[in-house]
Amino acid sequence: MTQLMSPRITWAVAKRVLIQVRRDHRTLAMLLLLPCILMSLLWWIFADVPGNFFDRVGPALLAMFPFFVMFLITSVTTLRERSSGTLERLLAMPMGKLDFLFGYALAFGLLAAVQSVLAVGVSVGLLDMQVQGPVWLLSLVAIADAVLGTALGLFVSAFAQTEFQAVQFMPAVVVPQMLLCGLLVPRDQMPRALEAIGDVLPLSFAVDAMQELVSTDETGQVWRNLAVVMCFVVVVLALGAVTLRRRTA
Amino acid sequence: MNPGVAAVEIAGLTVVRGTNHVLTDFDLSIDGGVTGLLGPSGCGKTTLMRAIVGVQQVAGGSVRVFGEEAGSAGLRHRIGYVTQAPSAYADLSVRENLSFFASVLGVDRDDVTRVVDEVDLHDQIDQVVGRLSGGQVSRVSLAVALLGKPDLLVLDEPTVGLDPVLRQQLWELFHRLADAGTAVFVSSHVMDEAERCDRLLLMREGTVIADGTPTEIRQRTGAGDIEDAFLRLVGERR
């Protein structure tokens, strides 16, 4: 058996993905700037509304951007990798499946770090979002969400035969989590069945973590929720590894 | 290479795709030199090559490469594989592609320069693969397979769409590699490439219908060229 993972190969995969993104200037610009622009837009639509809506909704959106953007990007890139033959070629080489998965997770995690530092910086520095807990933890939660999005994207790309299908997994997998995470209606006010489902979806834990950071300076719950998100990441990556088959029909 | 052990030893291989039996109870042994696999598209060439590399699901039989079961981890350093559709990252340059695969294989960066020379892509090394011509992309794909000097090269139609001068250069390269001890297994559907092989396998509908040097096959069938030999062999079987 080859070893399951090697730091050299994992890093090679991550570096390659980062070079691919860097070459694509438009994608890079959108990846880094769109969250900042959308946070500003959110601030603006609440500008004339009394109350602190921006402080309530903003943090949840900081959790969602990296999640759905990385989900989409990863599912499309991985699908491309499957259909172009490069994945078949890599799997015929001494590359562990985990190298491939963690390489992607690492690359998009790093991108998410930059993305979230910018978005958090704009929200807290410019738009005056009130955060009781440590600000850097906002970014850390955002990175975990991005990695979660990447892991889910890697997993579902196995079930998509075309890029059209891959894009449709967004409303199938991501939107229900957004509806049920408690942003529109607090989860304890939803019908019991929906509350129960909402309580165990990964994005709910991420959004909870963000909202706790804003409302209190107690970080115990935040770390607990963050740990749950990371557990989801590990499970989904393991499922992703199962879908990577060296032998195909 | 381990003397006495065949590069590839296939016994009773059966591959079913959907309801179609692509290969049934297929036997084949391949040794050093340049072995050519010729046949019309759809005859099972790609399936056979994928089985040797160990990426094909098989229904039965055994495929052993250098004495080990095809696809086993120990072989992944030793086989260079060119897929039928050239596979490289379109949004990376030639150098970036090769450097990436070199680090996956754990081979030296010097090897990148060597393989670029072998496939004559020096002038394109910093160009993005997506902007190259079809023939240049297939040479990038071939260059990847040459990284790390594998003991067995499995090349699925590597010369499709190349100009004759370049094709000749690549066949010279295959022979140079074979002389240096690499077993080269190369497929083609262009009959005029047959003459360049040390050993030739003609394949049709999942069966090898002729096996020998090109000269032997021509003499045995009394044909003037391999295309004619192929037609006569198919005629005999009817």
Can you tell me about this structure?
The complex is a heterodimer of chains A (249) and B (238). Helices cover 77% and strands 0% of the residues of chain A. Chain A is an all-alpha fold and 249 residues long. Chain A is globular and about 60 Å long. The model of chain A has no long low-confidence stretch (mean pLDDT 89). Chain B has helices spanning 45-53, 94-105, 110-118, 134-146, 164-179, 214-221, 226-237, and strands spanning 8-17, 20-30, 34-38, 60-65, 68-69, 79-82, 152-156, 183-188, 199-204, 207-212. Chain B has a six-stranded mixed beta sheet, with helices on both faces. In chain B, strands 2-1-4-5 form a four-stranded antiparallel beta sheet, with helices on one face. In chain B, strand 7 (152-156), helix 5 (164-179) and strand 8 (183-188) form a beta-alpha-beta unit. In chain B, helix 3 (110-118) packs across helix 4 and helix 6 crosses helix 7 (226-237). The radius of gyration of chain B is 18 Å and the shape is globular. The A-B interface holds A 1-2, 8-9, 12-13, 15-16, 19-20, 23-24, 84-86, 88-95, 246-249 and B 17, 53-58, 71, 73, 76-77, 79, 81, 83, 85-92, 96, 100-101, 103-106, 128, 144.
Question: What is the assembly state of the chains in this entry?
Answer: heterodimer
- The count of DSSP E runs of length 2 or more, i.e. the number of strands of chain B, is 10
Distance between the termini of chain A: 23 Å
Instruction: Provide the low-confidence segments of chain A as ranges.
Output: none
* Principal-axis shape of chain B: globular
From the spread of the alpha carbons, the general shape of chain A counts as globular
Q: Average pLDDT value of chain A? A: 89
Q: Considering residues with a beta carbon less than 8 A from a beta carbon on another chain, report the largest interface and each chain's count.
A: A-B, 27 and 31 residues
| Percent helix range of chain B | 25-40%
DSSP helical segment count of chain B: 7
User: Could you give the order of the helices and strands of chain A?
Assistant: HHHHHHHHHH
